[in-house]
């Protein structure tokens, strides 16, 4: 990886020899050659640790993915999104289907056979090894994407770059969700990070070349590649990739990429490769086009079937709302029972009886609708509106007058990453039917934007990892998940800095908050989870509720902080005279 | 690479935080390895070492008086370690009860397996490791981070035996570390503890005996130490009939070796069988004679030592302990695969002085454990941990032994290898043969280091030495 980057830098230097460019690129070339070997070793070590998790207890997703591999390898394309696969239907976009189908064929060639019976029948060792190996191979995209993003970002210090890379590659949230629970988030996030790196570079390229050489070939190629990568990420897992769509669209507008044909060609080619084969296959079998699009839309955006909240209440704004609703309802019930007789009391009781039953708290069941008991219901349309509003600061920051060429590369790069992180956080906070896993991308982006040891990223990442705990509830994982969280926190905990100057009171307050939240609150929460007999108290779901609300507070705080920071950074950049 | 990383971590975060991070990482690796199957998982009627430990806890918890412990169902999984192991099993049983798996340590729960009890027993080993082995290795390394990281994070062998196969060797290793760290003052006490936990700590005894004979007998501390050790022995054996304990602890009827262990007797089994020596009653004596011959030089080195700086004295001590226990491993009677941990522990303390040799020995030792762990389904753990070790060390010389070792592992693992099933004993024998060759070379290296070389005066230009310099 590093050798390639170094060669590329050398080639570019030959083409445009300018004094400032020369030093910067020479520095970058040196940097990549210095870091390549240790980074490769670190990547290999992380992979080896992932191998150690092969025998970890997996979830039902393991069986679902195996089922898709088996079925998609033999089913014709037109049946993928209709009835072809049988019970757990494919609800990922086509490229992910291709990925699964390819691995299904490999498994057939290797004669690896397993018919998943019940919910959690033990798979044979060969199937486990095969499935885990596919996740590990998919994670090479994560290695690559992180490397791409870090390589052209603000980290000049090679050890610090490597440290950042490891904190993403071995992010315990990813480890727990991908390598224990079983999913392919690392792959999707990797492709998305590479796309974001290209989009960010687009801005810089245009700025640094200024208007003298308006759209060189390299820029066009870069823009086309950025569009292709982003489209690929959308076609792999739309729920993850669409989280940064507002920021990417704003960037495309800001640098004028929408005027370049390469962008449309690249993105369109990827989308066509995802959709056309299905359409052609359906037409060949005489299937009306409209029914195919309807089936696809129904599988990919099942708004009617999925409720506002996911089973364990992913820690977003609606989890806070639902918790407040529960609390209010409990208080009201208490008031209605204990109130002294009288007309007020009768009215209260009548109101209580008429209040609709909440449909979001059925524990493990995915229920439709977004109703609360007392608060007004949230509809998909309202949720979309809220999402757009919450991501608007990122878009507006990018659409404002972009930082001029005279600003340091680091400033522009940080502004772009901040915008992306803010956007994905807003999407997670207000999106419809968010999973816990969707918090992984905003957390990783935040740690890349602010630096992994910034108090806010430590706070958000600790909360993110803790929010994954309900997914990994098996007894044999209890100790390991805690140890992984502890390792991560120790790895990124802000180093003991010299006493801060008096002006940075905000930073001091942040550190205090971080200490209270991570070092005091999380252990206390973990203690109450196991020490209090919730089931005997009649509150079997209280641990889940506590986990989501406590982590949602951190997510909300991080969103507010990032929005504020982004606002300040954008204003500062806009105030710089050209 | 590792040394540079550790040096930077120490500069940036301070030694204590870096050490805590190492320890937490080590605990994480142990937990992850604990996800692999334990010895005898789901294999009735005998199960394996996990069931043995569960059974010991049950026996010590529910069987009274303690005198009967060593006679209770010896044909199933009778206790075959000295009393401290029995007391330890009792403590672990109490902890398991407190943690809510009292069913698992009931006397009638033969072969009890559940997700919760498994998690609890695995966690108990981790707790033992973290509470005893980790602090003592920090002490025995004199707080040097490279050495501490090697002992707790990188060395695959004791992680695999304790956390994949399931045993409590960490307690024994911690006691041995204590012995090495306090060799001048409390060696008898610590060795008594170690021997009372697992009798195989006697592999170190000749070195201590030689030192005792060599030194002046007028030191007060020496007498106190000896007295405390003797008291420990007497006190621990008091509840039992010594004959019962001895019969269980030294099982002469259980054969010359267990499974395919990489020692002299296993490798020369074809020859021994032809000459009829394998069934002979003279065999134990022959073992004793060979072992004594091989170990005697390391004991005799006590008379050779000259006044030297403490680091050199420590190096010599570790070398002698390594050589002596390695001689026992290679030539003595009834050796297990796991006994390789005993020579490996003092040798691992020399990671900063002899990094190449320690890496080589660690790789070979984990290779010698491979057939055992492969049978239990933990092969990926062995390969991953060993490769991580070699990767961290980043020494190209390691390719010479890493490649053949990996080739052997792969050959055994491949399903379409027709030889594997046709000759089921072939591969374990090949592993034993290969490891035996290397371990014999290691023994010769120990002789050479003890007798033929002057202390290394010039500082080597290896990065480990640099790291040490930087950390000072």
Automatic annotation (TrEMBL), chain A:
Main localization of the protein described in the UniProt heading: endoplasmic reticulum
GO molecular function ontology, one term from the record: dolichyl pyrophosphate Glc1Man9GlcNAc2 alpha-1,3-glucosyltransferase activity
A Pfam family that the UniProt record links to this protein: Alg6_Alg8
Keyword Ribosomal protein assigned: no
InterPro entries reported for this sequence: Glyco_trans_ALG6/ALG8
An annotated GO BP: protein N-linked glycosylation
Localization per record: Endoplasmic reticulum membrane
Cellular component terms per the entry's GO annotation: endoplasmic reticulum membrane
EC number: 2.4.1.-
Family: Belongs to the ALG6/ALG8 glucosyltransferase family.
Protein name: Alpha-1,3-glucosyltransferase
Transmembrane segments: 35-54, 182-203, 224-257, 263-280, 415-434, 454-472, 508-525, 537-560
Region named Disordered: 1-30
Pathway(s) served: Protein modification; protein glycosylation
Bilayer topology annotation: Multi-pass membrane protein
The organism of origin for this protein: Cyanidium caldarium
Keywords in alphabetical order: Endoplasmic reticulum, Glycosyltransferase, Membrane, Transferase, Transmembrane, Transmembrane helix
UniProtKB/TrEMBL annotation, chain B:
GO molecular function: dolichyl pyrophosphate Man9GlcNAc2 alpha-1,3-glucosyltransferase activity
Membrane topology, from the record: Multi-pass membrane protein
Keyword Glycosyltransferase recorded: yes
EC number: 2.4.1.-
Record's keyword terms, sorted: Endoplasmic reticulum, Glycosyltransferase, Membrane, Transferase, Transmembrane, Transmembrane helix
Pathway this chain belongs to: Protein modification; protein glycosylation
Cell membrane keyword on record: no
Signal peptide extent: none
Ranges annotated as spanning the membrane: 132-154, 166-186, 283-305, 357-374, 381-414, 426-447
Cell compartment(s), UniProt: Endoplasmic reticulum membrane
EC class (word): transferase
Cellular component, GO annotation: endoplasmic reticulum membrane
InterPro entries found in the cross-reference section: Glyco_trans_ALG6/ALG8 (IPR004856)
Family: Belongs to the ALG6/ALG8 glucosyltransferase family.
PANTHER family: DOLICHYL GLYCOSYLTRANSFERASE (PTHR12413), DOLICHYL PYROPHOSPHATE MAN9GLCNAC2 ALPHA-1,3-GLUCOSYLTRANSFERASE (PTHR12413:SF1)
Protein name: Alpha-1,3-glucosyltransferase
Species per Swiss-Prot/TrEMBL record: Cyanidium caldarium
Lineage of the organism: Eukaryota, Rhodophyta, Bangiophyceae, Cyanidiales, Cyanidiaceae
